[in-house]
Design brief:
Order of helices and strands: EEEHHEHEHEEEEH
Number of strands: 9
Shape: globular
Number of helices: 5
Oligomer: single chain
Distance between the termini: 17 Å
Largest sheet: 5 strands, mixed
Mean pLDDT: 95
Radius of gyration: 15 Å
Strand content: 15-25%
Structural class: alpha/beta
Strand order of the largest sheet: 5-4-3-8-9
Low-confidence stretches: none
Length: 172
Amino acid sequence: MKPQTGKSFPAITLPTLSGKEITLGQASGDNWALVLVYRGAHCPLCRLQLKAMQKHVAAFTETGVEITVVSGDPEEKARNFHSDIKLDAEVAYGLSIDQMKELGLYISEPRSAAETDRPYAEPGLFVVNDAGILHLADISNAPFSRPDMGAIAGGVKYIRENNYPIRGDYQG
């Protein structure tokens, strides 16, 4: 079951590295929320994606989008992973298998104990509007397919400035 655009985003509350709890997809005031799910500390492509994302944080902020990145890693792995990335975003951790399923994410088993010690979510990106409705979704089954964050930042700006409707919500 995948979350559907045009419907409420699942309310999943997780701890963050800043010591707060956050409910994914909920932003303050009339801001929107971007939730970026990454595979975990074991993933070099995730490190590259998050470092590259830093270039676009200002564009999201100017558009009124609050960013949260999240994985199934425990706190220590998440903290170690993010210590050198310096991403200006909230970092949540501890996404459970059931929560991964609720988000409609693909879940993979480690290829070996050297990779990681637990099943993990493959990449996902969700943009939730100020009403808590899923506006954009991108879910991948492998680490090699990820949206360009500059294109997402520009797209969300266009959506907000032009009241562009939710697409892909046709249920027949």
